[in-house]
């Protein structure tokens, strides 16, 4: 089970990452571009999800494209989901209660790679992946 401290540690370990807030929740950006953030479910989300709405902490994460989002949603871990609010957007929601540290790190790094400047992303990938 991951925590906000885990998210913070991983996100801030990435080059140029900064912590701030968005809509009152914690958010991490690179070059003013949001890559992961705290995303509590809103009333419209709860209505859309019905009884299947998760109750724990939710992380919003940018993904490379819609195909990547669909692959994550099909993942057997059950840690990923979406709401109608994000239809057509390369964003996935992550149940922190259901994601392990390795998968969390993968999600955050991939989100950062999507938003980081191309040169920084290439350098990071060359050195770390």
Tell me about this structure.
- The protein is α+β, with helices and mostly antiparallel strands and 129 residues long.
- 39% of the residues lie in helices and 23% in strands.
- The chain has 5 helices and 6 strands; from the N terminus they run H-E-E-E-H-E-H-E-E-H-H.
- The protein has a 6-stranded antiparallel sheet.
- Strand 2 and strand 3 form a beta hairpin.
- It starts with a helix and ends with a helix.
Fold blueprint:
Elements (H helix, E strand, L loop, with lengths): L3 H9 L4 E6 L2 E6 L2 E6 L4 H7 L8 E5 L3 H8 L6 E2 L9 E5 L5 H15 L2 H11 L1
Antiparallel strand pairs: 1-2, 2-3, 3-4, 4-6, 5-6
Helix pairs in contact: 1-4, 4-5
Instruction: State the separation between the terminal residues, measured CA to CA.
Output: 24 Å
Query: How many β-strands, per DSSP?
Result: 6
- Gross morphology is globular
CATH architecture: Alpha-Beta Complex
Specify the number of helices.
Answer: 5
As laid out across the biggest beta sheet, the strand order is 1-2-3-4-6-5
Q: What's the level 1 CATH class?
A: Alpha Beta
Question: pLDDT below 50 for ≥5 consecutive residues: which ranges?
Answer: none
The figure for the number of domains is: 1
> Average pLDDT, to the nearest integer?
95
User: How would you spell out the order of helices and strands?
Assistant: HEEEHEHEEHH
Q: Roughly how much helix do the residues carry, as a percent range? A: 25-40%
- As a percent range, the share of strand residues is 15-25%
> And the CATH topology?
Aspartate Aminotransferase, domain 1
- Class per helix and strand makeup: alpha+beta
């Amino acid at each position: 089970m991951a925590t906000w401290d885990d998210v913070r540690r991983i996100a801030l370990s990435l080059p140029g990452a900064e912590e701030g807030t968005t809509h009152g929740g914690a958010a991490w950006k690179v070059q003013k571009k949001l890559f992961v953030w705290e995303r509590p479910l809103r009333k419209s989300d709860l209505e859309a999800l019905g009884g299947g709405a998760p109750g724990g902490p939710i992380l919003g994460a940018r993904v490379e494209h819609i195909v990547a989002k669909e692959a994550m949603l099909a993942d057997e871990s059950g840690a990923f989901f979406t709401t109608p609010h994000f239809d057509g957007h390369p964003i996935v929601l992550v149940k922190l209660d259901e994601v392990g540290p390795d998968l969390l790190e993968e999600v955050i790094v991939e989100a950062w790679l999507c938003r980081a400047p191309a040169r920084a992303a290439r350098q990071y990938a060359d050195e770390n992946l």
